[in-house]
Structures are given as C-alpha cells and as structure tokens.
Amino acid sequence: MNKKQLQELLYSVRDGKLEISDAIHALSDLPFKDLGFARIDNHREIRTGYPEVIFGQGKTPAQVKKIVKFLLSRGNNILATRVNADIFEEVNKICEDAVFHETARCITIRRREPEYPETTIAVVTAGTSDLPVADEAAVTAEILDNKVTKIVDVGVAGIHRLFDRLEEIRKARVVIVIAGMEGALPSVVGGLVDKPVIAVPTSVGYGANFGGISALLGMLTSCASGISVVNIDNGFGAAYMASMINKL
Amino acid sequence: MNKKQLQELLYSVRDGKLEISDAIHALSDLPFKDLGFARIDNHREIRTGYPEVIFGQGKTPAQVKKIVKFLLSRGNNILATRVNADIFEEVNKICEDAVFHETARCITIRRREPEYPETTIAVVTAGTSDLPVADEAAVTAEILDNKVTKIVDVGVAGIHRLFDRLEEIRKARVVIVIAGMEGALPSVVGGLVDKPVIAVPTSVGYGANFGGISALLGMLTSCASGISVVNIDNGFGAAYMASMINKL
Amino acid sequence: MNKKQLQELLYSVRDGKLEISDAIHALSDLPFKDLGFARIDNHREIRTGYPEVIFGQGKTPAQVKKIVKFLLSRGNNILATRVNADIFEEVNKICEDAVFHETARCITIRRREPEYPETTIAVVTAGTSDLPVADEAAVTAEILDNKVTKIVDVGVAGIHRLFDRLEEIRKARVVIVIAGMEGALPSVVGGLVDKPVIAVPTSVGYGANFGGISALLGMLTSCASGISVVNIDNGFGAAYMASMINKL
Amino acid sequence: MNKKQLQELLYSVRDGKLEISDAIHALSDLPFKDLGFARIDNHREIRTGYPEVIFGQGKTPAQVKKIVKFLLSRGNNILATRVNADIFEEVNKICEDAVFHETARCITIRRREPEYPETTIAVVTAGTSDLPVADEAAVTAEILDNKVTKIVDVGVAGIHRLFDRLEEIRKARVVIVIAGMEGALPSVVGGLVDKPVIAVPTSVGYGANFGGISALLGMLTSCASGISVVNIDNGFGAAYMASMINKL
Amino acid sequence: MNKKQLQELLYSVRDGKLEISDAIHALSDLPFKDLGFARIDNHREIRTGYPEVIFGQGKTPAQVKKIVKFLLSRGNNILATRVNADIFEEVNKICEDAVFHETARCITIRRREPEYPETTIAVVTAGTSDLPVADEAAVTAEILDNKVTKIVDVGVAGIHRLFDRLEEIRKARVVIVIAGMEGALPSVVGGLVDKPVIAVPTSVGYGANFGGISALLGMLTSCASGISVVNIDNGFGAAYMASMINKL
Amino acid sequence: MNKKQLQELLYSVRDGKLEISDAIHALSDLPFKDLGFARIDNHREIRTGYPEVIFGQGKTPAQVKKIVKFLLSRGNNILATRVNADIFEEVNKICEDAVFHETARCITIRRREPEYPETTIAVVTAGTSDLPVADEAAVTAEILDNKVTKIVDVGVAGIHRLFDRLEEIRKARVVIVIAGMEGALPSVVGGLVDKPVIAVPTSVGYGANFGGISALLGMLTSCASGISVVNIDNGFGAAYMASMINKL
Amino acid sequence: MNKKQLQELLYSVRDGKLEISDAIHALSDLPFKDLGFARIDNHREIRTGYPEVIFGQGKTPAQVKKIVKFLLSRGNNILATRVNADIFEEVNKICEDAVFHETARCITIRRREPEYPETTIAVVTAGTSDLPVADEAAVTAEILDNKVTKIVDVGVAGIHRLFDRLEEIRKARVVIVIAGMEGALPSVVGGLVDKPVIAVPTSVGYGANFGGISALLGMLTSCASGISVVNIDNGFGAAYMASMINKL
Amino acid sequence: MNKKQLQELLYSVRDGKLEISDAIHALSDLPFKDLGFARIDNHREIRTGYPEVIFGQGKTPAQVKKIVKFLLSRGNNILATRVNADIFEEVNKICEDAVFHETARCITIRRREPEYPETTIAVVTAGTSDLPVADEAAVTAEILDNKVTKIVDVGVAGIHRLFDRLEEIRKARVVIVIAGMEGALPSVVGGLVDKPVIAVPTSVGYGANFGGISALLGMLTSCASGISVVNIDNGFGAAYMASMINKL
Q1: ipTM, 2 decimals?
Q2: H interface mutation test: which of G124, G128, G156, G182 has the most H CBs within 10 A?
Q3: B30-53 as b/e, with b when 16 or more CB fall inside 10 Å?
C-alpha cells in the first residue's frame, strides 16, 4: 500500500464510501505482516517511497513463495533478487506471469502500470563479464519505473570506446558504473560527467582481485569527485539509489 | 571559468565586443594550466559542473599557495581540504579573506555570490566525535552553494534521539549520515526516509574498529536500501555527491 | 555425572548402601574416558555445571556414534552440533529417540527431565536468512533446560517491527541477537533493554560481508553498552552463555 | 534520573507535594538534553538501567566538561573513559572530588551512595602489561556499584599460578578475563569455572599480534563454552556487561 | 643415495671393485635428475640428511608415478604427501607394497630398514578433528625413522586431560602440538615441558577461525617460550623438523 | 588491423588501387566493433602494437565464439585465455584449426606467419605444480611471436638445480620467473642475471599461502632489484609484458 | 632455583645440615612469588629448564626493577627483553653490573658461571638492517649459556655471499635465520644444511612488507623442509628455542 | 668493478703491465667485502650489470658512511635510497660532492661519466602528492645513466591532461606510471601506449587507501596488458627495472 492508496482509503472512509470495519481490515496488518519466519514491512512504501524487495539468498523456495503470495495480495509489484531456478519454479506456481531474469538472478512481477519519469538512468559496464550485475541493476531500475540506457564494455584499457558513448551517458540523470578488476572506470567517468555516479565493484577477476576487493577499494579511494559506492556485485542497491535520485 | 562565463565570452566575440586576440589569451590555458608540479584542470567546471578542489594532503604550503593564486586569478571560489595551519598561514598571505575551518581542516574563499537551491542537505552524525567529518561535509556543501541542516549525536544506542529529529531529516533532499564504530546509523536512517542517503564511515573508535573499517564494511553491507558509501572520513566526497544530487 | 549424582554416590558409600568396589568402578573413568580418538570429559559437568557437548564438524559418523554411546551410558542428555544427515543416521541406529534438527544442524537426546527456571532467553534475528543460527541457539538453550522466546526478522531497515516486539524482549532475562550483513541490530537492542545482550554475527550477506566479518566487526565496535559477542554463526556458543546467565 | 527518582517525582505530583509546573520543568529535558555538539541521553537509565557514560576519545576537554556539568546537575554518578590529563584538568575545575584513574584513563565522580550486591565480579589478567585494561574494568565495575576481585598475571605459560587462585575466581558471579598475545587464558578459565566468562583481548604484544587481533580471534574461536568477547582493550564494555549480569 | 652409499661407492672405486664406467653411470644423475616436468633432487640427502619428499598437490597421478619410479630406482624410501586415492591407484601399479594412509593423505614405501633412535617424538592434539594433521605428522616421522607417541584430544577446555598425559609428553625429546580453533594448547604445553615444542595450527573451526589464521596467530604470539610454528595443517613440516631435532 | 595493414590500405587509396567506398567500408568499424555484449577494440594493435586478447572468464561460450568470429574476419591471430573445454568446443565449430592448450587453459588460432625476433624469453618455474601458469605464459609468448626457453622445477629448496640452468637463463633477453609458496625464486634469479625479471606469483600452496598472497607479497618486497610483478597466476600478463620488452 | 639447587636443599635437610624451618622459608615462595602487579614463576626453571625472563614492553621501570630485585634474590641470571634506556637506568640503581644491550634492547645480569655446550648456534641475517633482531637473539642465546656464531648480510640478492659462509653455518647444531622484506633466506639455507632452521621474520621493509607480514608468510610457506617460524622480530623466541635444541 | 674494468685488469696482467701481486690485491675482495655489519657485493655489477645500491632504512649514519667509503674506493657511482638528513650529514663529511635529493630521500655521488642511451624513460604521476616517489625514480634512473622525461599530475579525474602529454609519453622506450588513491592511471596509459609500463602504487590517500594497498591491488588487477608492478612507494625499483629495459 503506497501513500496514494492510503489517502484514497481514508477519503473513502470520510466520504462514507467505505465501512469502518472494512477499513480496519484493510489496515489491520499495517505496518507489517508476520508470516512466522518473516515480518513483511508493509509500511515501507509509505515511509521510504518503495515497497519491500525480497532478498532471496538464504531463503527456501517455500519461504519466498509465501512472501510473494502475501505481497501480491497487497497489489504490489514484486522484485526478488539473488534467486535461483528452484525458487522461480516455486513462485511460478502461484503466478504465471512472473518473469525470471536468469543472468540477473531476479524475479519480477508487474501489478501496477509504470509511471516513468522523463529522465533516464545510465548503466555502464567496463567489461562483458560485468553483465550479470548490470542486468540486476537494469531489472531493478525498470521495476522501480525508470528508463534505462545500457552501455557495455567501455573499460579503461580502450578508453576511446568510452568517449564514443559519452554523449549518451551525459544525457542520463544519474550514472551507474560497474567494473571489476581494478575498478578504474568510475574515476574516469566521474571526471567527465556532471551527474552523480554510483559505482558498483564486481567480483570479476582473479588473484589479487580477491573477489572484488580491489575494485571496491579503488572506487572508495577514487581521485574523482561525485562518486559513491555500493557493495560488491550489488547491482540492485545501485539501481535503488539511482531510482531515488532519478525521481527527486 | 564555468559554462556561463564561456558563453558570454563567445557572445562577446561574435558581437565584436571582444578582440579575437584577447579571447585567445583568455582561453589560452584552457583546458588546464601547467604549474610545473601540478596541472590545474580549468576545464573541470565546464565538464562536471564544479571547479577544481585542492586536496591539501601531501602538498607543501608553497604548492597550495601557488594553486590558490592561479585559481583566484580565474575568479573561482576556493576550497582546499585536508590542510593544516601551516598551509593556511601561507595562503592567508595572498588572500586576506581566506577562512580556515579548523575542525574541518578546510580553507574556503568566496568569489562568487552563492545561488542556493530551495532544497537542503541534511548532515547527520552518530556521535560528537564525528564532528570534524561533519564539518568538512558542511563546509564543502556550503561553498558549493547548498543550504545545510546539521543534526548531531543521534546514534543508534539511544535511538529516540534520532526519532526526535526525523521530521527535519525527512525535509532534506538528500541525507549525509556520518558514523564511526559499527556505523549502524545509515541503515536505520535509510529505513526511515524516502531520500537518497550517502553514508560516511569515520575512523572514530578503537580496537576492532581498525581505523574505520568496521564502519565502512557495515555501511557497504547495509540491509537498508537507498544507501551508497564514500571513503572513510571523506566528508568532502559525501558533500560533493550530495550537492550534485541537490542541484539536479 | 553431575554434582548431585556424585554426592548421592558418596552418601551411598558412607551409608553402606554401595560396595566400595562398585563405587570405584563407577568412578573409574572420572574425570575423563579415553576412546582412543577422543578423551571424553566426564568431569566437565561437576566443574562447569554443563555436560560435554559434541562438536560434529571434522568428526566421522562412527566417531560421533561412539561418543554418543559412551555419554548415554553415563545418563547424560546429548547435544551434538554441526552435524549432517550422515551422522544422524549413524547415531539413530543406537538411539531411536534421537532428534535431528535439520536447519539447526543439531542432534539432541533427552535423558533427564528438564528443570526450567522461571525466566526466559529471547532469541532475536534481524532477518529470515538468520534462522539456521537462531535454531541452533534455540535447540541448545532448550536442551540446557531453558525456555526460549523466538522473535524473527526485526532488522533495522524496518525498525518499527522491532518496537512491536520490544516488550516481549524486555521480559527475557538475557537476549541473544542474531544478525548478518552490517550486524546493526544488537546495537539498537542494546540501547533499548536493561538486560545483557549476546550478539551473534552471521555469514548472511555477500561481497564486503566477507563471510560474516562485517557483522562481527560491527558488533565488537558497537556504540551501545552491555553487549558481548561470540563467533560468526555460533548460535550454540551464544545459547550456552545465555543459559549460564539465565541460571545464575 | 533513574526509575526510582521518576516514580518519586510522579508520586509527589499525585500527592500534591509538587507543583505541576515544577514537575514539567524537571521532566522538560527528558528523554535527552541537546548541548549542540551532543545530545545527552537522560532516558538511558530508565531504559537500560544505567546512566550515560562519557566516551572521551575524540572529544575536546571543553566538550567533556560541559557534558559532566550537565550530568552532575541531574544528580548522576559520572564515568568518563578514554580521557587524558588535559580533560581531567578541565573537569576538575567544576568538580573538586573528581577522581582521575591514570592507568585506567578514567574519571569518576560519585554522587549516589553505592548499593553493592552480595556477589562479586572477578577481573583476571594474563600478564602485568594487561593492567591498564583491568583497571578500566575495575573502575567501571566499581562506579556501577559492584565489588571486584582483581587477580593479576596468571597467564597460561605458568598455569599453576592460575590454579592457586582458582577458588577465588570460582566464588565470583561473573568473570572478566583479560589477555593479550595469543589470548589463551579465557579458554582455560572457561573450562574450569561454572560462571559466565567475558573475554577482553588486549593489544599487548608485537608482530603477528597485530594490535590485539590475534588475541581477539583466539577468544572468538575458543574451544571452551560459556565465553563471549568484547572489543580489543575494552575493559569498560566487559565491566558494563558483567555488572548487568551481576545484578540480575 | 645417502652419504654412506656414496662413500661405499667411492671406496669400491679406490679398491678396484667397481669399474670407473659403472661408477660414472651411478653418479651420472647426481645431483639431480631431469624428468622434464620435474628435476629430482638426488643430492638432497647428502646435503640435508633427508631424501626428496613428493608434494602431491597440483601434480597429476602420472607425474607422481614417474617421480616415485625414479626414486625407487635409487633405493630410496618414498614419502608422498597431499595425495588422493587417484594418485595412490597409479602409484600402486608400479609398487605393490605402497601404503596409502587415507586420513593422513600420504603414501609411504619402505626400502631401507629403519634405524630408530632411542628417543621419541610426541604428537599431541587438542581435539579429535585435528587427527588428519596428526596422522600426517606421525606417518612422516615414522618413515623418517622415528618412534612416535600419539596423544589425542587434550585441549585446554578440559585441561586435566592434558595433565594426565604430561609425564608421557615430558619423556619425548621433542613435542609436536597440533590445535585448531584458538590454538592455545602449545602455550600451555610450552609452559609445562623442558623440550622444544613445534606448534601446528589447523584449519579446524569456523567463522573467525578463517581457515586456521586464528590458531596460527595465537601460536606465533604465544606467551610461552620454546615454541616455533609451521604452516597451517602442515603435519609433514612439523614432523620433518622434529625428526631433525630428534636425531641431533 | 595492424599499422602495416593500415598503411597498405591507405597507399592503395592514394594509388587508386582501392575505391574510396571500399576503404570506408574496411575502416568502418575502426576503432571498435560493437557486438552488443562487447565492444571489440580494433584500434588496439595500432595503438599498443598488439591485437585484442579475449579474457574468457565470465563469458559464455556463445559470446566467445562471436568475438572470435569477428576477430578472425579481421585477419587477426586469436588468443583466448581462461577458457574451458565448453568454450573450446563452441569455438572449434567455426574454426577447425583452433588449438586448445588444456593445462594453459588457452585457445590459439594462427592467421599470420610468425616473425620471431632473435632474442628469447626464458620461462622459469620453481616447481612442477607451477606448470599451468608457465604454459599460459609460453602459449601467450609464442602467439605474440616470441621464442621461449622453458626451465622447470628449479626452486630455491635445491638451489643447485637453478645454477645448472643459469647460463641458459642468462641468454634470454627477459626472464619470467614463476613461483608459488613463498615465491623466493625471483629474488634469487634477480640477483644472478642482468636482464629484467618479471615475477609471477602462483596460488600453489596451502594454509598461510592464502591463494598466492604469500608469494605475491614476497615478490613485491624482494630484496633484489630489476624485478616487477604481475597478478597471481597471471602467466598471460607476464608474457605480454615480456613480449613488449623482447621486441623493443 | 633450579633442579640442582632444589636437590641440594633437600639433601641438606635429609643430612641434618639445614633446619626444617630454614628449608620452609627457602621454599616458601615456591612455585611463584606474588609482587602484586606480577606473579613471578619461580617454578619455571624446574619445570622447563629455564628461569623466568622479563618481557619489558608495557611494564613501567619501577615494575621491572622490582621483578629484577626479586629474581636476583633467588640467585638467577637476569634477562629482560624489549626494554628501553629508562628501564635500564632504574635497574642499574640496584645492580651495577647490569649490562644494557642497546640495539638488542635487552638487559642481562650474570649470576651463575656459564656452562657452554660444545656445539654452537648460528645466527644468520639477510641484511644489515636485521641486526637488532640478531642481537636480541645473540644476547639471549649467550645468557642461556650457548656459544653463538653470527653471520651478517648474506641475503639472497647476492647469494654467493651465503655460499662463502656455508661451512661455518653447517658446523652449528641449530641455525637461526633472520630476514625481512620477502624473507627468502631461510628457504635457501633450509635447502642447504642438515640442521634445524628457526626462521625469524623481521619488520624491515616498507609498503607491501606490512610490518613483516610478507616475510612471515614467506617463511611459513617455505618450499624447504626443516624450518619452523617464530613471531616477527622475535629474536628472543628463536634463541630460546635454539638453546633448548642445542642442549638436548 | 664492472665487466669492462675486470677485462682491462686481466689484459694488463696478460700484457705484463700489471704485477700479479697487484692484480691479486685488486681482486682480493672479490666477490664481496666484509665490513662486519655488511657484506658489500662487489661482484654484483659483473653479475647483474649494476653496482650495489645502499638501502638506507634501518642503517645508522655511521654504517652508511662506511659502506659509501668502501664503494667510493672501488670507483663506483653511489646511490643511497631511503636516507635522511642525518645520514647525509655523515656521508658529506667524507665526500664533499655528495648530493642530497631531499624529496627523493636519496644521496647520489657521480664517479663515472654517464653514457646515456638515445632512448628515454618517461616518469608519469597521477598527482602532485606523488612527486617524492617520482623524484626517487628520476634520481635513480639518472645515476644509472638514463635520460628521463617527467610528466606530473595527469591523473584520470581530468583525463584530457594526459592526452595532452601522450605524444611525449609515447616517445619513451619504457614508461613508469606512479599513482596513489585508486591507482587507475597505469591502466589508462597501458591501453594507450605500445611500450612496457612499470606501475608504482603510492601511499598517497587516506581511509580505505590503507597505505597504498588500494592502488597496489588496482595495478595488479589492471584490465590493461603490458603492465607490471613494484612495491608501494618503490620509485627506486621501478627506475632500476626501467633502466634495465632501456639499455637492452
């Protein structure tokens, strides 16, 4: 239930269109619903502008299905991240139009018509191997009602590939830059655009990459300004932040 | 030289108000000025919307003075971060109205009238010991023409202190949350506001704090969404990012 | 053999109800029993108030079975942690009423009637994915004769879910707080209750979580007081400590 | 203001002994007092049973003095940790009976008569060099109204020194064990007593000790049960936890 | 070929019992034999008193077989460590009396009669889960012609189990102490015996154990003297060192 | 397309041998070709002297095949590193003479006749287990048109094996030294030859080797001069650098 | 009091040469003496063959003086390590013949005639900067009654310097090898001698040396056998271990 | 003594121009000279092409002076790195023309006429604060007889500053790229030039820079090819390697 839905409900009560008892029922599991193994935060959208997202890692298929079922009953769009095919199979049983984004490891279900703002989010990757993280970001941004421009494989080892796409990047309202290995791309982009850059280190690489630490540290200590960083491989977090900025 | 100044110069040429030779001279050290030990990036403001900022650490007082002198000659506002009293003394010799923000370790010099947007940036700290970083953020945000609301010492160990100020925080367009030790405050704030949160870990603490690593890791792995992170103690970086967002 | 059993044996000797030779036999493998690959610490309960617990990791099913067999012969309750289905299958052969707690990865066998104290232990988790660790804690606390209140998924990103259960938590004599990711929940709980808090970091998360390090560091450097910490994912250790406190 | 004081105040209002306006004034800065650079948590004692403690590190002498002044005006006992001589000098100006515990780096001021429980807290150290941390623990435990037994230099390299004092340690209700280097003492003590053990790693050592990490990791991974751990050198935190347990 | 064998060969030459051409052939691949993928160090025994040992990890079964074949042709005892069943199967084809020590992950082949010194090596473990490392140490010590006393599961959480075996340990000429988790046992043993202690950290444990780092650091920073340390899980290295000391 | 090819094309245009429209077509995807999931850097050879190399890790077989197909259409030699059998199978479908170097995990396809310089690159390994990295280096060096001398298993534990091959090593123009465990070999070689040494740490080892960190740190802090280091297990990077030096 | 002294005392009692009361007095502070801040382990020599050594770091000059005074009263040789000039000054007041070894940071006082074994300990360093650690080792070995051969600056970057001294090193019964930076020397020495090698990493170096970690890891993961390792800069620990071995 | 000097000496002997006894004297401390605390490696130049360099850190002024004195007596150029003013003062006493390079922390003394090759070494820095490391590299390269082009402050945040100097960089035979913070510059340069790049991470930065680790890891995991890395702040090592390459 978002702010608008809540307002409408209260107006209906005021105008006598809705029985108090019905209103009470509708509000009864505000601000959260206890499912035993989880307490769904219904209040989140009112408080933060975004509905609850399901973090699939460490949850059983049965648990995810129950949470999806409840959230669907509230009329929400669904986004579940870090899910696998087993979880999707279970969710699919209760929702035929659920979409499994395989490389992104996400499930989405649309229940509300998107209201896209004019402005876009650019999702930029250093290499081809960063695509799964970019996909998680793009899927997230889309389900949160944003238009996305995806620009792939413009890493610093062939920096002219970046310049070729620079105008496109500059048109976005906020830029997500995704890179593994040394994670240098956000520094270069940050020095070239006048928009906030959200940097996502990826675990792409080997050896002294240490599962993404080298890229993470590189982005945190960037010599460019206007850059902030999210967790390693956290395409979702970057897109969520970008969506917030895009909708300001 | 910002975009507006550049446009005016070019119009003057077109309209015959400025000699070509004078225009050439004015443009001659675009896009950067080589000072021997440094190459000042004059082009930065046109490219990224913000003028060059001086990172004082590792520079001698004489070097900082020379860079300030050059930037002043271009009509820029000055911000120098990570400076000490020795550097200020030297800068003060060539600019009487330079201001030394001691706890923030910054020097600022205003040369252009501020044009504040309506919206504000909230700067929130977990503890009193985080004040120097908050001051660096506030000084930076101000010189970049933003209005700042500072809210101090509302850490999670006494979480009611935060709730008391929540309405104020929610009014800001973007929120900077600064915390040392376990760095939990951004997670709590991120779950309570519908604005982007920029988290700044500080080196406040001891032992397993490891100079801010515990706070940094805590913020990167936050269970709340809508949070991105800058380097340890990097009040400047957070404010720069926040300013970009505030002015979108 | 606990203190009470030992006293009774000695009284029996004094009162002539027990032959010295029988007493010697009963006491013969005090204070420990050598099984070749393990030396069972029979003396532990007399010394520390608790019988030996079996740490299953790194032991073969055959080894665990032999230890269980010996401990059962002493009339002890059995708790084996970090076990898998293979080990349980083996143990089950010699003890039909052995219980396998799958998510908790524990085996329990009850041989003595529980004597519960009035007071309870609260087991609180930040998320659904922390449930296996919470289960290990709950199983351990129960076999050590404690009543447990389990409160799940009240993490700081939706902190009102915590406030809803606060009264229940405050009623406990000691509180176990389990959290992965940034591990912020113990700090918040610690600032809200007047009971000792035992914090358990979990390995739930990814990237900069580093297998639970971020949560561990966060808990060690908590700004709240009255918190102490056990190893990552160590639900057993937290419950053992809590049981000691609960029975003081 | 603790619970008892609050009750008395409310009874006085009910019984007409206190003017409403005076009561309002007395309650006016509940639950916290904003000093500009700090928000004193007056509510803490009611909530957690203990008044606010001042963490001196990163605060200026002037800031600490102001906080002390305010807390004294509320009739509280004062404990300030991680302070130096400069801070004490400033505090001493407004409170002649302030006591500076030099090795413990603490200031204490007594304003309420202690009400000691019968039981004691044992503070045990592995070496002589661990004394400052032990002193911080002892000073903290005392100002929180506990009786303390201090046992020094009984580290595992000469383990008979420990056995000699074991009976004394066993008499305590809760045991704080402080050790640097490999931090093995808590494991040994934990295997010998039937009371909760709070382990404090210290930064005593060099090389692979890494400022206390080796002791910290050793304590977290202890093979003994009934041990929980606080931050490196955190004598205060251990004593606070121990006091909570001692007063249950 | 050891020193004695070399001397005999040279005497045979001097005394005319051996043709020069035959001697040349026998000496021809001194000091090493190039197998293409490996250069076997025949000279090692003369130089260091011990023949080449095969480190199986990272080698193919075929490679190990070829090295074994060559070494056997030189009349050496064979020790191959870190091998698996596949490697053994291959080796077994060329040597029927090869012995596979499964838990120790070693292959041994005896070709020379053992000449045991009078004195023994004690191999002591903290827990049952440390047995594989203890077995690697025992197998190594035996093939290097030492008598071994194995004492298992005497860790510090039940320290009386150690005291019971202390006399046996004291009789050894050198003591190998193997422990995971916090690795405290070597410190305790080191404080109780007057013989050199070689400490072996194991990767037994979880969480903050970090694959044996906690035990390793604990042993390196031991407060006891007379202890030195080898790599995590390196039972071979400890036994090799112990054998050197035992034979001095 | 390399510099020479480009020159020829331009001469053809100048001399009227090539239609402008054909030249435009030939140049059309200079400086890169966008394949959707990747942007192939055609310009690289002109800019850096070497064609694009395919980093297989994190790419699907289909993606690698498409990139190979495009690069073949440009007449390039192909080198794909970090590939597995699945990728090779796919590539093999479009190119029968593709070669799969199994231990090196590389695919090579020759399209241009090699032009070897006189001088050679020495590839030296400390142990047999370092062979896969050595093979990656050798395959890379060969496809980049260098002659390679491979010297295996001359690690410092039997240093006479190195001296035996020293003359061969000294004849090379640049030396690649590959070692795991403590990574000491480059220091020894660096002190014995008058040629640049490129050190490659490998992940061979266990325990405190930490996946190659010990070798990496050892090489970075070498007491010998004339050594520089590439990433752990990065045989490709070392050979690429060596080839650059060999062709100067 | 060592074993011999204890025996003599008991014989004297048996033979009536010593009054029981005097014997009791002499034995009264066996097995340790409580000085309040320290518990001196008189029993250590009987138990481990060596008297108590004073670890100066973290102790005040007054504390060290008191411990020295007590130990002198027992007729012991004195060794205090990690001391500074302030401590020496204090100790010198009560003992004129105390010797301050400045680079070794040790104080020694001889009270018993040395009884040197025939065999020697070799102390070998890689560089000149390792000398302080070598001096600590040599001073320790000497006061524990060993003859020492010191061989300086034979690091692997100029390995012929080592070969020149190899015969001397081989004559020792046990070899201490001290190295900073990459710590490669013990591996080379270990491959060349048939005696146990005790490796001491030093903090000599900078950057990726990380205060001695690179040398420590290198030594722990050495490819040579017969090497064990002590803490960074722990010359004392190496010499103590070496002395134990030398006297077997 | 270099190869040429050695040849001349031997020719003089052959031609009767030099007495054998004099030749013996000249060769007497070949291949090294034992100064007691150091063994000077005279043989190094013959072996590696470069004379011994003095690493000043950890050496006393007196020790450095003695080594300089000896090396001067051999007619060598002198380079001492990591020295301070105290050391220079001492060296200056025995050599008036010694030069102290303060920011580079080096002493140089020229004794042989430089023989510069035609080609140059480029020394490129990301920022002004990297200058001390660049100076160490430049001083080293110069004393080893190379011509150096220094290009300062062309970091990736303003990447057009780099393009401006690209032609100059491309003219060099080998490029040293020095950067702190995220260390991204070598990746960008490596993608733009066809010469070997030696990357030097610096400790410039704060927080998550961890004394240069972030830059180091970034360079090791660079996505560009043709890059190898030396230790943090190791300008000397980079220049030494570059000089070797420049003179091939």
Answers
A1: 0.87
A2: G128
A3: ebbbebebbbbbbbbbbbbbbbbb
